[in-house]
Every structure is written in structure tokens, then in C-alpha cells.
Design a protein that fits this description.
By secondary structure, this protein is of the alpha+beta class. It folds into two domains: 3-63 and 175-199, Rossmann fold (3-Layer(aba) Sandwich), CATH 3.40.50.1000; 68-171, Hypothetical Protein, Haloacid Dehalogenase-like Hydrolase, Chain: A, domain 2, CATH 3.30.1240. The protein is built from seven helices and eleven strands. Helices cover 31% and strands 28% of the residues.
Length: 203
């Protein structure tokens, strides 16, 4: 973020509230909160709308997760594709790289803000309650995954093409717009008094 943009945002803060909105994790958003000095009683949206947290206390206003059965459903679909992809399962603080698939580079993509572990799918602890399942790979392979997702899965999950080399499965209710509406309601404010600043890292 350049100095001109930062100056404009600092000027805007005196008149309205700024809510950061991203597909990134909470810990990956925190540096932006610090730079913009948003460490007050405001909220930010993480994991593409699955998580809403209070900037200073990190208290969760919303935390949507995937169940064990939902993880099994996605895993079964991905294994059946036989496409050279990498699969990571992320909670709010940890990422589990599934050794059943190709080696993952998600740790580099996510800037190492989370704790990383390598594990077989069958060794995952019950009730892990992850926020998202992340698939990475060559753009052509990710496109093949996206094109073959059956309607039964799109009806069960929110499927987000975060980047051309990444697609994510999130809880069905995970949606940035719905999360923004929840922030407005929780803040007892008007939508016109809030700017939602989207943080992206598209490839």
C-alpha cells in the first residue's frame, strides 16, 4: 500500500469506519490492521466471509466451519479426479497439508502466517472444525477441478476461485456480502458509514 493511498484512508477514518475484507486468515490480516491503525472497536472479515473478528480483542463475531462429514465428501470427490493437485485444510490457526496429494506450496502463498503440519487424511482428528479446504496446483489443473465440481457439491459448499491457481471449499454460508451485512448489524451502523476494503492477492 503506497503512501498516497494510506494518507487517503487515514483521512477517511475520521469520517467513516473501515472494515477489512479478505480471503486470508486472521493472522494474515493483522499487519494491515496495524498499518491502518484500525486497532479499535471495529471488525474485519477473514476467510472469504467465513470468519468475522473484532480487531483489538480478536473476539469472533462469526466462525463458520466444515464438519467431518463435509471434509470426507470433498476428499472423496478430489481423490476420484486423479488430478495432480495439492490439498490443505485450514483452521483459524493451523494448516494441515494432506500427504495423500501432491506436495503443497500453500505455505509460501499464505506468507507463513499459520502453523503448518503434514498429515494423511485418515489421521485427521475428529471434530477438527476447519474453516476452509484449499486446493492449489497449475492453473490448468485447478480449472479442471472447477469444471468438474458436481452440483451436489456446489449446493453444499461455497466454492471460491481465490486465484487462478487456487480453489477453496468453504461452509455454504461463507459469503463476503453476508458477512458485511452481519458487521453492519453488529456495529449498529448504517452501510453508508462503512467502507469495506478488500485485500486481494490474485495470480
Amino acid at each position: 500500500m503506497n503512501s498516497n493511498n494510506l494518507a487517503i484512508l487515514n483521512r477517511l477514518k475520521t469520517q467513516i469506519k473501515i472494515v477489512l475484507c479478505s480471503g486470508r486468515s486472521i493472522t494474515a490480516i493483522l499487519p494491515y490492521i496495524d498499518v491502518l491503525k484500525l486497532n479499535n472497536n471495529q471488525y474485519s472479515i477473514a476467510f472469504n466471509g467465513a470468519t468475522i473478528f473484532q480487531n483489538s480483542s480478536l473476539e469472533l463475531l462469526q466462525s463458520l466451519t466444515l464438519s467431518d462429514q463435509q471434509l470426507q465428501t470433498i476428499y472423496t470427490f478430489l481423490i476420484s479426479l486423479k488430478v495432480p493437485i495439492s490439498v490443505d485444510i485450514s483452521t483459524l490457526t493451523d494448516v494441515f497439508e494432506l500427504s495423500d496429494f501432491s506436495p503443497s506450496n500453500y505455505q509460501q502463498i499464505s506468507h507463513n502466517f499459520l502453523n503448518f503440519h503434514k498429515i494423511e487424511f485418515d489421521s485427521i482428528s475428529p471434530n477438527l472444525n476447519p474453516t476452509t479446504l484449499i486446493i492449489t496446483g497449475d492453473c490448468s489443473d485447478i480449472n479442471q477441478v472447477s469444471q468438474n465440481i458436481p452440483s451436489v457439491l456446489t449446493n453444499l459448499f461455497s466454492v471460491v476461485n481465490s486465484r487462478s491457481d487456487m480453489v477453496e471449499f468453504l461452509p455454504k454460508q461463507a459469503n463476503k456480502l453476508m458477512a458485511a451485512q452481519n458487521v453492519v448489524q453488529a456495529d449498529h451502523n448504517k452501510l453508508s458509514n462503512i467502507i469495506f476494503l478488500v485485500i486481494t492477492s490474485r495470480k
